[in-house]
Amino acid sequence: MPTISTTLVLSPLPAIEALGQRAAAMGAEVRRDGDQIEVQGAASRVRAGARGDNLSLELIADTDEDLLKIRGLIEAFVTAHGITDIDWKGAKPRKSRLTMARALSCTRISPSFCRVRLAGDFSAFRDGGLHFRLLIAPDGALLPEPGADGDLVWPGGIDAWHRPPYTIRAMSAEADWMDFDIFLHAGGRVTEWTEDLRPGDPVALTGPGGKGIRPARWLGLAGDETALPVILRAIEAADPETQGHASILIAESADIQPVTAPPGLRLEWVLRSEGRSLLDLFRALPTPPETDRFMFFAGERQDAAVAREHAKSLGMTAGEYHCAAYWTEGWTPPLSQKQARR
């Protein structure tokens, strides 16, 4: 895993406390042990501690893109505390990769989903690439370009861009086209984007990146519509001997997608009208075996935090579960991300 570290001339204990509070507010899992802290995010980990009167930091991520992302967050954090010159040790991550594609089609496949097919060179995603970020520019902005150090320079600042993560649903053997599914909902930025999308339109994305579902002999999976693509892809890629249970919460039966699951893995489609919450479904998963197991939860941010505690209560270790926040209740995009409709 890509790893970098540094030591900063910064009073450690106040910085550790502030870092923990900031990370918890963003939905990360925070573990404190004296003058040490570990922050576990969706695809990265930060270890911070006191080294004499200085602050020691170690950043670990699943991919180079994830490392770049967490490095940017940490650099913004320490800059706010007066540190502007950071000497990172370790292998430098490869720079974010911008991929340009064009739309081939945008098809409504069920009441709540549409499937977008893109044409382009997706060879970077062929070897295990699972997730990417779709780039929706603020009004009037040009595409990001590599800067002097190779990092992408974002017109208007990166926070002005809407960059939602998506899962590749299918890709050609030649990696010259790929599909991804979009959950449609009122007021959604990407929902509006699909309404304007036409064949031939340029589409920009970055990746690959993100943490997926680790293969294991036993899988326990629970997610809502936002997690449907990643759960179905994991089921399709699972070894035929895989055991377990997967529950997907959907609005209506017409949103059910055909999928071939291993004989020992039960897939349950649950309608919201039945009254069961996603946390109910996660808690109802069968008791996992003691070895070669993996649990996955993806849904609302606060629910993901509760799901993490449940996984730990079952004796699951950090590498045996992943509880991801795919959306946040009540969140609205900042004005800087607004884009005029065509």
Automatic annotation (TrEMBL):
InterPro entries found in the cross-reference section: FAD-bd_FR_type, FNR_nucleotide-bd, Riboflavin_synthase-like_b-brl, SIP_FAD-bd, SIP_fam, SIP_rossman_dom
Superkingdom to which the source organism belongs: Bacteria
Domain named FAD-binding FR-type: residues: 91-215
SUPFAM superfamilies documented for this protein: Riboflavin synthase domain-like
Coiled coil: none
Record GO terms (molecular function): oxidoreductase activity
Family from the record: Belongs to the SIP oxidoreductase family.
Entry protein name: Siderophore-interacting protein
Organism listed in the record: Paracoccus caeni
